[in-house]
Amino acid sequence: MTIFTIKPIKEVFINDLVQEDLENFLYIGRVTNLSNAIWVEGVIIIFHGAMPSEKNSERYFEGYRMYEKVSFVKYSKYSKTVKWNGGTYELALKNYKNNPRFVELANWIKTQPVWNEPRENSK
C-alpha cells in the first residue's frame, strides 16, 4: 500500500529578484531554451535554481527551497503563449491562478521594491 503525504514548504530563499522588460525576458527564455513559464496574478515568473549540493538536497527534503534568481515580468492578462517580437520564439504559459502557494509568491513579489521599478515593455 502506498502512503501519500503532502509536506509543506517551510521557507523559500531567493538570492536575487529581478524584474525584466518583456522583450529581454523572452530573449533570455529563447537563449536558455525555456519552453514554459508560470503566470499568476499578473506576473510571469521563471525560477533559476541554486547550485546543487549535498546540503541543498538535505534542506530540500526538510522543506526549504533555494533559488539563485527569480525573474519576473508584469503581464496583466493570461494567455496560453507569449511571442517574442525579435524572432519566432514562443513561450508557453502555465496558469497557476488556482495554486495558493504561487498566488502568495506573486503577491509577495508585488510588495518588493523591485516591483515599482519602471520597465518599458510590460503589458
Task: Give a quick summary of the entry.
The chain has helices spanning 22-31, 54-61, 100-109; strands spanning 11-14, 17-19, 36-40, 43-49, 64-74, 81-83, 90-95. The protein is an alpha/beta fold. It has one domain.
Top keywords for this entry?
alpha/beta; 123 residues; globular
What's the layout of helices and strands?
Layout: E1 11-14, E2 17-19, H1 22-31, E3 36-40, E4 43-49, H2 54-61, E5 64-74, E6 81-83, E7 90-95, H3 100-109
Parallel strand pairs: 1-5, 2-5, 3-7
Antiparallel strand pairs: 3-4, 4-5, 6-7
Describe the protein's architecture and organization:
There is one protein chain. The protein has helices at residues 22-31, 54-61, 100-109, and strands at 11-14, 17-19, 36-40, 43-49, 64-74, 81-83, 90-95. It has one domain (11-107). It has 123 residues and is of the alpha/beta class. Strand 3 and strand 4 (43-49) form a beta hairpin. The longest helix has 10 residues, at 22-31. The model has no long low-confidence stretch (mean pLDDT 91). The radius of gyration is 16 Å and the shape is globular. The protein contains three helices and seven strands, in the order E-E-H-E-E-H-E-E-E-H.
Radius of gyration of CA atoms, rounded to a whole number: 16 Å
Q: What global shape is seen?
A: globular
Provide the domain count: 1
Counted by DSSP, the helix tally is 3
- Give the structural class: alpha/beta
Enumerate the spans where pLDDT stays under 50 for 5 or more consecutive residues: none
Tell me about the largest β-sheet: 7 strands, mixed
Give the beta-strand count.
7
Order of secondary-structure elements: EEHEEHEEEH
Q: Name the beta content range.
A: 25-35%
How widely separated are the two ends? 49 Å
| Mean residue pLDDT | 91
What share of residues is helical? 10-25%
